[in-house]
Design a protein that fits this description.
alpha+beta; 3-stranded antiparallel sheet; 12 helices
Length: 434
């Protein structure tokens, strides 16, 4: 049996060999045909195959972006005129395992080793992440309630022409919050119910029980502002609930155009590096394109709502009847490190589809420097960032009043981490803005 099989294989081999010798063109054409058929098959399959989704582009907010400029062109319209757009925010997913007593604030650390770059620092926002709540909720809620009682319209105000936009924001919050935080909020036929504080808000009554921005502020930990475009093409602050800003007052900025808000506050590099890009951004942003940005400050007192170290929140009369404004010049110099606090803001920006207003949510994160430095890499990275500020940024952030004490402390903590082998001398760590 084995002999017969061997002879059969030998005969087959000889036949194949003879065929290859006598018909080389046939073999070549056959191989070519098979290759073409394989190419056609793979090309057809790839056309019908669903593309793999890519993450949205998120540039590093403290480095110049190398991303090509967007070719998107906003719909043509006259300045100050907005036609409602049929857009509905995607439903939010419940925050996984969220608990009002247990969920800690996210550790935003929006600073890097130098050099420092002045940019808008925008990155794409996922809709689920619009509003961030955590176990500091009751503290923020209590601070806001007290501020509303004490200061009223100085902190919360809506211009008549912005009322519809403020109502639209309130409606958006009443839709989003029960979706994202179902253990804290419950939808009602007329609005929303807070399961923790037992507050119920009717957003359908006219007139509302209170200013719509004030009502919105009671729901979340963020401060809120809405900018509206006027016929001159400028965006004006016409609705706001600024209760925990620390360094600025709504009463000073209300009704101002965007450019004046920044120039009156001496924002570094605004005219030379930010104004044109910011104006273009506000003109172009569409309801389906929300973005985020972060910033940070050093504060030398422990008051979340208003930094008392820079002076009184309300202007006081000085010598000769001159009103004295708050500012870093009045802050005590080089206070002990226990008085130094890290203040960071997470801002979201989105356009409301019905009114066309551009909404800012401004969530403040506030903690002692002595706590921040416990994180591996944070002391060296923050020291490098503070040193990298240009003169204008340093003045704006008040470094002259606290820099010596802060940097000496950060350097010491960084050296401890280096000696323990936790970080290298100039190691970049973490992923911005955490």
């Amino acid at each position: 049996m084995t002999s017969i099989t061997s002879r059969s294989l030998a005969t087959s081999y000889e036949c194949c060999k003879q065929f290859l010798v006598e018909h080389p063109r046939t073999i070549l054409y056959g191989l070519l045909s098979i290759s073409i058929l394989i190419w056609l098959f793979t090309t057809t399959v790839s056309r019908f195959k669903k593309p793999h989704p890519r993450r949205a582009y998120s540039p590093d907010p403290e480095k110049p972006t190398s991303r090509p400029r967007s070719t998107f062109k906003a719909p043509e319209r006259e300045p100050g005129k907005w036609t409602a757009i049929d857009f509905t925010r995607p439903a939010a997913s419940p925050y996984p395992d969220w608990d009002v007593h247990e969920t800690k604030p996210l550790p935003y650390r929006p600073f890097r080793h130098g050099p420092y770059h002045i940019t808008m620092g925008l990155r794409t926002m996922q809709w689920d992440e619009w509003i961030e709540l955590d176990n500091h909720y009751l503290r923020f809620h209590g601070d806001k309630k007290r501020r509303i009682e004490e200061r009223g319209e100085k902190c919360c105000k809506t211009a008549p022409e912005a009322y519809d936009g403020a109502i639209e924001l309130l409606e958006e919050l009443c839709s989003y919050l029960p979706q994202r935080y179902p253990s804290l909020f419950q939808s009602t036929p007329t609005g929303i119910h807070n399961l923790l504080t037992q507050e119920t808000f009717d957003i359908t009554a006219r007139p509302l029980a209170e200013d719509p921005m004030q009502m919105a502020a009671r729901l979340i930990q963020d401060d809120l502002a809405i900018m509206f475009e006027k016929p001159d093409g400028q965006y004006y602050l016409l609705a706001g609930a600024i209760l925990l800003a620390g360094f600025w007052r709504l009463s000073d900025k209300f009704g101002m155009p965007l450019s004046e808000i920044h120039t009156s506050g001496d924002v570094p590099g605004f005219k030379t590096k930010l104004e044109k890009g910011m104006m273009n951004f506000f003109r172009r942003i569409q309801p389906g394109q929300p973005v985020l940005r972060n910033n940070y400050f050093i504060q030398v007192d422990d008051n979340l709502a208003w930094s008392r170290s820079i002076g009184s929140e309300d202007p006081v009369e000085g010598e000769g009847g001159v009103m004295q404004a708050a500012g870093w010049g009045s802050a005590e110099k080089n206070k002990a490190i226990e008085h130094h606090y890290f203040r960071s803001e997470r801002q979201s920006l989105r356009r409301l589809p019905r009114s066309g207003g551009v909404v800012f949510t401004i969530r403040t994160y506030f903690e002692p420097i002595t706590k921040v430095v416990e994180e591996v890499g944070a002391p060296g990275r923050l020291a490098s960032a503070v040193r990298s500020w240009g003169d204008d940024v340093a003045r704006y952030k008040g470094r002259e009043r606290y820099g010596e004490v802060l940097l000496e402390y950060l350097d010491g903590k960084h050296r401890e981490q280096v000696d323990k082998g936790l970080v290298k001398e100039t190691e970049e760590d973490g992923k911005y803005p955490f």
